[in-house]
Amino acid sequence: MIRRPLRIALVAPLVSPIAEPFLGGSQALLFDLACELARRGQAVTLFAADRSRVPGAEVVTLGIDPALMAPAAFSGPDPGDPADQERERLAFLRIAYEVRRRAADFDLVHNHAFDAPAFELLGQSHRRVLHTLHLPPVLDRVVEAAAAASRQATMVTVSRSMAGAWRPWVGESRVILNGVPVARIAPGPPVAGRWLFVGRIAPEKGIEDALAVAESAGRRLRVVGGVYDAAYHAGLENRLALHDAIGAQPRDRVFMEMGSAQGLLMPARWEEPFGLTAVEA
Question: What superfamily would CATH give domain 182-280?
Fold first, then answer.
């Protein structure tokens, strides 16, 4: 019997394209997953924001501008702007409609978006849905939507810690640890005095604490990471100017920075779901 490829629809977070340089770990991991599934002969279709690029996968363009998708506030109350929530819902409605229209083309829909409409709508579009929970249960509207989705969908978490954190709302989840491309990470000779911070520029990542540690030691901190919270970044610009902030970088460049650093500062202010940066470093 000839076995046909598994036909997988991947649904991405929409706040940035799935393309280098990645905004965060979930985008990088989704890219790796899509590439590896395609390399192994599976039929991969990616529903993502415009300008996404994944070799070997069909990337569906639906006119979703990531610049119009508001980032979530993970470090405090998130009442949400109604206009932002409406744009988010309309974007996921486009995806859900297309998934439903092409439902016979897919054996499985695998969602990686951490947005309430993704949990609410995808279960209405396909009979077999899997949600990977990349983040902790910190947003009430997302937690409620995920809890409702878990009654029919399969739920995956990325660490035992996250499985425990989500258990009150989604019950038992399958733990699948994040993959790390160790073959691409090579230690190099350390640059004297180079301390490194890698992560999106947002309060929960602890960038202010990292800057304070470096400043107290008389060091310039090398900061690698894209702007997730624009207002928060604006308040830090003068301080970052005293350090070496080089913005978001392709992953191979990030790995080079890690390989040449004397140490990595990662003073996260929340419960890290996995801690990918620490593992890579």
Answer: Glycogen Phosphorylase B; (3.40.50.2000)
User: pLDDT tens for residues 97-119?
Assistant: 999 999 999 999 999 999 999 99
pLDDT tens sequence across 146-191: 999 999 999 999 999 999 999 999 999 999 998 888 888 888 888 8
| CB 46 within 8 Å of CB 54 | yes
Please state, in angstroms and as integers, the Cα–Cα distance from residue 281 to each residue in 26, 86, 227, 261, following that order.
17, 39, 21, 9
The sign of the CA dihedral 66, 67, 68, 73 is positive
Looking at this protein, which amino acid is placed at residue 164? G
Could you give the residue range(s) of every CATH 3.40.50.2000 domain in the chain?
Answer: 7-175, 182-280
What confidence tier does 76 reach under pLDDT thresholds 50, 70, 90?
A: low
Q: Cα angle vertex 246, ends 241, 249, to 5°?
A: 160
Q: What is the pLDDT of residues 241-250, one digit of tens each?
A: 999 999 999 9
Q: Which CATH class is domain 7-175?
A: alpha beta
Cα–Cα–Cα angle for 55, 61, 66, rounded to 5 degrees: 95
